[in-house]
Specification:
The chain is an alpha/beta fold. It is built from twelve helices and twelve strands. The protein has helices at 11-27, 42-45, 62-72, 87-95, 129-136, 157-166, 187-201, 214-223, 236-245, 255-262, 276-279, 315-326, and strands at 2-6, 32-38, 53-57, 79-82, 100-104, 120-122, 171-175, 204-207, 229-230, 248-252, 267-271, 287-290. It has a six-stranded parallel β-sheet with strand order 3-2-1-4-5-6, sandwiched between helices. Strands 9-8-7-10-11-12 form a six-stranded parallel β-sheet, with helices on both faces. Helix 1 (11-27) runs parallel beside helix 5, helix 1 (11-27) runs parallel beside helix 10 (255-262) and helix 7 crosses helix 8. The longest helix is centred in the N-terminal third of the chain and has 17 residues, at 11-27. The protein is globular. The termini are far apart.
């Protein structure tokens, strides 16, 4: 059996699709399972040990779409599964030439125009997006509720450099960045939190930063009174390795948070325009500080209201969440 998985991006969404791909592998251990992903997100898919091959969409252009469709059609896929629910992902799934193209029902699609490209669909049932992805497999008679993240263990120069610098001290990863502006808690508050974290728990706060975010990391370090340090430059494999080694991850709703939960590191998260019950840490032991219920910009990248919902989240509230998580008390 040949299976094509279509989940083009983004980082956190790809992580949330991994348990469904792991379930596919358990159901069909001898299958050829390929994953189609955009080039900029390939690094995380390359770590998924449940797949056989990563197929890369190089760039958003007609030429790239034609090239990747030709590559897909060299494999006679029995089924293509679109975990993204966009028109572009549905078109690529259909363009693969798969005998069966599976996607979410029209009421559970991000773009309803995707539905005509599927030959079979299922409701996107489940409070969490991980469950939604697992339940899509019921179209293939796979009813597997197991959540697992088969991610390879790789060497990380960034982790090696960090460990040499901190001389064996236990550390927490603090991630202040996010692609959506309204998901970002202020750098000054992250700095205050980092100072608390070091004083109250003895954990060394290590501030993560991505492309263009080094000034943000520096601002957090400065606001912490240099209680925190900036992480070395990291790629996705470095984030996986560093998360495995960390004692805690503190982050908004963005890729590093989801990597932390995938590798089983305790997390504390800060949510505004997105719902932690749908997009947050899947473990009941992890703790989320959320303003989703009072937010007026649900799943939009910019605030609609004059008041920014995350502005109401205090350092004391997140500090209490950290104490709760480190004490091992589950969410109430």
């Amino acid at each position: 059996m040949n299976v094509l998985v279509v989940r083009l991006g983004a980082l956190g969404d790809i992580v949330h699709a991994v348990p469904a791909v792991a379930a596919l592998r358990r159901a069909y251990p001898a299958a050829q399972i390929d994953w189609l992903v955009e080039r900029k997100h390939r690094a995380i898919v390359d770590l998924v040990t449940a797949i056989d091959r990563t197929i890369e969409l190089e760039r958003p252009s007609v030429a790239a779409w034609v090239a990747v469709t030709r590559e897909l059609r060299t494999t006679p896929y029995d089924v293509a599964i679109d975990f993204q629910g966009l028109l572009k992902s549905a078109v690529l799934a259909r363009g693969s030439g798969a005998a069966k193209v599976v996607g979410f029902s029209i009421w559970h699609l991000r773009e309803k125009a995707a539905r005509p490209f599927y030959s079979a669909s299922a409701p996107g049932e489940g409070a969490h997006v991980i469950r939604k992805n697992l339940h899509l497999l019921r179209v293939l008679d796979i009813d597997d509720e197991t959540i697992s993240f088969p991610l390879a263990t790789v060497q990380s120069p960034a982790l090696t450099a960090l460990q040499a610098r901190i001389d064996g001290r236990r550390f927490a990863l603090v991630n202040p960045g996010a692609a959506w502006p309204n998901k970002r808690w202020p750098a000054g508050r992250f700095g205050e939190l980092a100072a608390f974290l070091r004083e109250a728990s003895g954990l060394l706060p290590v501030v993560l930063w991505g492309p263009g975010e080094e000034p943000l990391a520096d601002a957090v370090v400065a606001a912490s009174g240099n209680a925190a340090i900036a992480a070395p430059p990291t790629g996705v494999s470095d984030l996986v390795a560093m998360s495995r080694a960390a004692a805690l991850v503190v982050s908004g709703d963005t890729g590093p948070l989801h990597i932390g939960t995938a590798v089983g590191t305790p997390t504390v998260s800060i949510f505004g325009p997105t719902d932690p019950d749908r997009n947050g840490a899947w473990s009941p032991d992890d703790v989320s500080v959320s303003r989703f219920d009072c937010c007026e910009c649900h799943y939009d990248r910019k605030c609609h209201a004059s008041r920014w919902c995350l502005e109401d989240v205090s350092v004391a509230e997140v500090s209490a969440a950290i104490q709760q998580r480190l004490a091992g008390r589950a969410r109430g």
